[in-house]
Write a structure and sequence with these properties.
homodimer, nine-stranded mixed β-sheet, two-stranded antiparallel sheet, 14 helices, about 35% helix
Chain lengths: ~400, ~400
């Protein structure tokens, strides 16, 4: 097999995540995209192509054909921009296509965005739209929402490994603490274990503060061939590996509920391609759509043994200053989760950390970071490993 | 720039296009996908990745996360399958990503599908969903539907070049004649010029028989590196070039209404990459969502001078046996237009023609074919040029 051309991140940008009543879908994505171009010190005319991840714009804002919309509003006509969708992993999938576009030799400079505008509809309509990430015919149509699906996983994890509600809550407490140091985060307030445990029940044992919020926001990165990256930035971020795997879309078809097979397979592939082991990763952004998801993630990624993610979280081993800081951005829980944007935001946060630009939440000597982005209840997982050059 | 690894089509398959009351989205895409695998003589275990084009599944059937759904229902877990969306060009965009995946060296064998299930909703809901291909905020929300947008183009083309309603109608008559020779076509009945001219007005001058229908259907192809293609099929189809360009999403922002700038730019790039001119193309599948669209397409592609596409159509120069047969499949008009499937169906038809397997509609000595797939009112155009090896 022909060796792929290596690719680097040369610029990043994002909007604040949150409830943007004053901005539309177009404004959000243009803001993030322009920030990334400026950060890369590159002009629009130099960009050859673009990809954008967005999950449910058709349902949420009545707009499809998102690639063309963005090419137009970014002033990038006539370059090709293509929308990619894989539920909450849409952003990472767009990032992967950007890498392939450069690796294939078809394009040199590619902008990759992720965006979602979710607050234009009510909670019920948004939940229905998000239900499209699961198996509509066998899950949502029969009444299961996403908190319901993840509560099944949480219950089984508690039953098999003795994971407790306090362990779950500790993830939210930690991610809010991280988020309090991130000016782009939707929630910049710290919360206590008691706040989480006493918060409203959504789907037992998951309470409202175990759940990531509904958010608006966008993130973008500029990619270039590694060999020319240094002429654009003093701090190119090298993409060591990217991997993607799938699992059954419905939860009831799986052999286990205590981990995501797609995450295990994709991370093993990503480690192998990068010639690394979990011990080589300095920090990670993982997909904590619910607190149980972060606990499963740090196990699936090999940072902790299966069943030990809960106690590790409770003990602070995944906090800033701990042995492997997880979700320094605040994660989906505190930074927010505009679904299509999340995967790209993870790359933005990794890049800031690897450049040493993460301000009050900087991981010391951050050299290698990993992003773990999940679609639905785990039918898609994308893993990207990035390194400071 | 590193040279791309060349890619070939080694297997194709499709469902009949039409109103499939007896089949769901999943059944359609699995049927087409399995036919393509069987045609390629390849097992599912050999497939490394997949792409699928679908435009509006969220709105039409309440399902997103289509890549994962298909990986599951095709029995292809845990390989990555990714959904790509670009309105009616979604299928071609998926095809392009499949090419890039192989060209980049990341994957060797890739299955590409296109699918849409449109008849589960009423015409109004479907029209609203399709409106998402245009500029929702400035077009659909203000009352313009897609027939309305194309009627503006038709009116201007008639005004500038003297194109007549008979010339428009001749496209529909020809495509139904071609469709009558295609067992996969939604409409296999011939129609007369009088039938078209007397049919119900939709958006003056476009009548119902100037418009492509609402359809269900799926199509799929298997791609492989060119260097190994011959060990799988005696008739590999080489992809000479692929190109994609964008234009403003709203019609009112364009400098001209009588052609699509995206189609002109993408086709020029495709010709250049393939080192060909329009005269080298033996036949083409073009995006005749409305009869005027085919007339503009054959001009934008350089087969006829701007303004002469109408008379060329009326004179039969684009019919089977004419100088450049257009839409031997029946096109969107007669073969049907399940939007996400159309771009892939074009590749299936090109492959059948290039292999000499197009039965009663075979183009004599077909050596090089072109596919022209448009998203929305032209904000995206994808051009692919294929050659018999």
């Amino acid at each position: 097999m022909k060796e792929v051309r290596e690719v680097a991140v040369i610029g990043v940008g994002m909007t604040k995540f949150g409830e943007h009543w004053e901005k539309g879908f177009r404004e959000l994505v243009v803001e993030a995209g322009l920030k990334a171009l400026v950060d890369a010190g590159i002009h629009g005319e130099q960009i050859n192509a673009g990809y954008v991840g967005t999950m449910a714009s058709g349902t949420l804002i009545g707009q499809e054909h998102i690639g063309a919309l963005i090419a137009d509003y970014m002033g990038l006509n006539p370059i090709p921009i293509t929308r990619v969708e894989g539920a909450c992993a849409s952003g990472s999938l767009a990032f992967r296509q950007g890498i392939m576009a450069i690796a294939s030799g078809m394009h040199d400079f590619v902008v990759v965005g992720g965006v979602e505008k979710m607050t234009d509809l009510g909670t019920t309509e948004v939940s229905t739209a998000l239900g499209g990430a699961g198996d509509q015919e066998w899950e949502l149509f029969l009444g299961v929402t996403f908190p319901g699906l993840y509560s099944l996983m949480a219950c089984r994890h508690m039953y098999e490994f003795g994971t407790t509600e306090e362990m779950l809550a500790s993830v939210a407490v930690k991610n809010h603490k991280h988020g309090s140091k991130n000016k782009y985060a939707q929630y910049q307030n710290e919360i206590s274990m008691e706040d989480v445990l006493k918060s409203k029940m959504v789907a037992d044992p998951l309470k409202i503060l175990d759940c990531s919020p509904i958010s608006d926001g966008a993130a973008a990165v500029v990619l270039a061939p590694l060999e020319v990256a240094e002429s654009y930035t003093k701090k190119p971020i090298r993409i060591l590996s990217t991997a993607q795997a799938s699992d059954t879309i419905a939860l009831h078809s799986r052999k286990t509920l205590t981990g995501l097979r797609s995450a295990q397979i994709a991370s093993q592939e990503a480690y192998k391609k990068a010639k690394l082991t979990p011990k080589d990763i300095d920090f990670a952004e993982v997909h904590d759509c619910f607190t149980i998801a972060e606990i499963m993630a740090i196990e699936d990624l090999g940072f902790f043994k299966k069943g030990e993610g809960g106690i590790a979280s409770l003990e602070g081993r995944t906090a800033l200053g701990g042995e492997i800081p997880i979700n320094t951005s605040g994660g989906l829980k505190a930074c927010g989760h505009p679904v299509g944007a999340t995967g790209v935001k993870q790359i933005v946060e990794l890049s800031w950390q690897l450049r040493g630009e993460a301000e009050g939440r900087q991981v010391k000597d951050a050299t290698i970071g990993l992003a773990h982005n999940v679609g639905g209840s785990g039918a898609t997982t994308v893993i990207n490993i990035l390194k400071r050059e």
